Amino acid sequence: MIRNILHIGMGVGVVFFGLVALVELLGYVTWYLMPRDAESMQQASEFEEIMGRLMQSPTEGTIRVVVPDRRPKTAMEWPERKGRQFREAPMLKKRVVVGNLPPVEERVPENPLMIVPPHQNGPYGGTWTRFATGPRDIGIVEARFAYEGLVRWDPMGQKILPNLATHWEISDGGRTYTFWLRKGVRWSDGHPFTVEDIFFWHENVLNNQELTPVVARDFQRGGEVMAIEKVDAYTVRFRFRRPNGLFLKLLAWGRGYEMLRYPAHYMSQFHPRYVALEKLEAMAGEHGFDFWHQLFQDKRDWRNPDIPRLWPWVVVAPPPARPSVLERNPYYWKVDIEGNQLPYIDRMTFEIYDRETINLKAINGEIGMQGRHILIENYSLFMENQSRGGYRVLHWITGGTGGESVALNLNHKDPVMREIIWDRRFRIALSYAIDREAINEVGGFGIGQPRQPAPLRTSVHYSEAFEKAYIDYDPDKANSLLDEMGLVERDRSGMRLRPDGRPIRLAIETMSINNRVLELVANYWTAVGVKTEIKEEARQLYYERRKALIHDAATAGGEVQNPLLEPRLFVPYNVGSSHAIGFTHWLLTNGKRGETPTGDMRRCIELFWQIEETPDEAEQVRLFGEIIELNRKNLWVIGTIGSMPSIMLVHNTFRNVPEVAMASWSVRTPANTAVECYAIEP
C-alpha cells in the first residue's frame, strides 16, 4: 500500500532509482541545458569540452595543472566578443539613475563568471520565502546560500569548477597550490577583492592565537601551518611542509570560503595589528565585550549587516527582525549568457516557526524552495497536496547515508561487552537479523534501498560488495553466528547471556523521536536474543555520552558521495565516528589521549594518511578502495536502508531549480545548484 504513494502527483518516486543512472548527466545540465540560440549552444559545447580537460592530469612528473589549454580564461568566462554590455535588476537600475550606485559595467568584473541557467534567463524580481527554527538556524545562509569560495563542486559533487579562482596549479607533489583570482571582483560595498584579503586572513586570523587557538588539520602539514605568498594582486600561492593531497577538494568543500570571510579594508578596523590595543579594548567594552577578539568575531558574524560580502544576497535585516531579510548584492560578480547580472531574485526572507508549523506551511504552499526541516514522515502528504499547494516535490540524490545506520561502540568501557562487540561475528549476525525490505516499507515509504553505509553508486568510491554485504534477512544465520560465538545460554525470557551470566543488553542512542526504523531494528535484534532498546536523547546529552564512551550503540551518518571530505563512517576521523570515538581521540591528539588503534582499524588510519599525502586522484581512489574493503570485512557500522532521496519542495512559480541534483553538506546544497540563477515568475 505504501508503494502506491509513489504514483501520486508527478510520480517522481516511481522512477527515482531509474534516475540514478542519469544522475551525472542531469547534474551537468543544471549549468548548461537548453541554450536558447546557436551562439549559446556553442558556448555550452565549449563549456563541456573545457570542463573535461580541466579534470585531466599530465602523465609525467608531479605537477598537475588545472587550467584551460587556450588563453588564460575560465570555462565560463564572459566572451570578449560580447563586449561590456550588461543588464541589471530594476531595483538596482533605480539606484543608478539617482546616482547612488555606479553603472553595472563598472560593478561587474573584467571576466565575470557566466552561468547558463537550466531553463530560462530571468525574470528579475520576487522574494524567496523560507522558514527556520530559530535565529541560529537562519545562519545556515553562510554555508548553504553563500557558497563563494575559490573553487566549488558541480551540482553532482563530482567535479571541481572555477569560482573566485579562474584556474589553479598543483605542484611539488601536492605541497604547493597556486590560484589565479578573477580580476575586478568587488565586495558588496564596492571595494576591490584581491589577494590582500586572503593574506589578511592568513596573517591576522589563522595565525593569531586568540582568534584561532587550534588550526584545522586542513591548513597544516608536518606540524606547520601552511605558508602564503602574494605573487601579485590576483595570484596567491599556498605552501605546505608536507603534501596536502586533499587541499583542493577541501577548498571546494568549504575551506575555500573560510578564508574569504574577512575583507581586509573592513576587518582591519578591529584588529590590534592595525589599531592600538587600548583603543580596541575600549571599543570592545562599548559593545559589551571583555576582549578585542570578541569584538572582532562579532563584526565578522553573518548577522552583521555592515560587513561587506561576496554573496549573491547580503543581510539587511538580521534576527531578531521578523522576517529576517537578505537583499541582492549590487556588486555580485556573475552574469547569465545574455549579460544579465545575477542573482535574478531580489530578496530572501526567513520567518521562524517550529518544525511542525514549517511542514504545515509547506503543505499549504507558503514556501518558495526548501528542503531543510521538510520531514520525510510527511512524504505522502507532500505528494498528495502538490496541486492544492501549488508546488512540486523534487527527489534529489542524498550525498549522505540517506537512512539509519547503527554503530556499536568498539571502545566500550565494559570489558565483557567490549569483547562481544569486537567479535565481527556479532556485528554480522545483527546485520543478518534485520529485515530491511520491511523497514523500507514501514520507515522508508518504499523509496529507500536496503544497503550498508557504502559509498553511493554515483561515487567513484562505490563498492557493490560493501553495499550488499550481509544485508539478506536471515535470522537463522544470525542465530547460528551468535551460537558460534558461544552466546548460547539464555534467560527465562529468551535473551542471550554474556560470559559473566548477565543478559546481553544494547541501547541504541539517538537524537530522533519516534524513529520507526530504529524501533524495528530493536525488535529484530531482540528476536535473536540480543535485548535492544531505543534511548532518545537531547542533542547535548547524546554527544556528551558518546564523547565519554558510555554508549552501547548510536545512530551514525556521514558523507557517502565524497567520503574523502569527511570519512567518519570509514575511518576514526572526528566525533561523528560513533563506532570508534576512543580511536578518534587518539588520532586528534597525536596519541596523547584516547585508545591506540590496532589491526584493521589502524590500517584504515594509515591508508587515509597516505591519501592525504597524494594529489593523484587515481591513487586516492585506489587507497580508499582498501579502506572500503576493510569496512566491508569488519562491518564496523551496520546499515539498514539508505539512498533515501532528499525531498525538496519548490513553488510552481520558481524557475531554474534542477529536477535532480546532489543534496549534501559537502557540496553545500542547494548552493551547488547555482541558486543565484533561480528565478520567480510573477
How would you summarize this macromolecular structure in one to three sentences?
With 682 residues, the chain is α+β, with helices and mostly antiparallel strands. It is built from 25 helices and 28 strands.
Describe this structure in words.
The chain is of the alpha+beta class and about 675 residues long. The chain folds into 3 domains: about 30-120 and about 140-270, Dipeptide-binding Protein, domain 1, CATH 3.90.76.10; about 270-300, no CATH class; about 405-640, Dipeptide-binding Protein, domain 3. The chain contains 25 helices and 28 strands. It has a 5-stranded antiparallel β-sheet, with helices on one face. It has a 5-stranded mixed β-sheet with strand order 21-20-22-18-23, covered by helices on one side. It has a 4-stranded mixed β-sheet with strand order 3-15-13-12. A hairpin with a 2-residue loop joins strand 10 (about 225-230) and strand 11 (about 235-240). Helix 11 (about 275-285) crosses helix 12 (about 290-300). The protein starts with 15 loop residues before the first helix and ends with a strand. The model is unreliable at about 1-75 (pLDDT under 50).
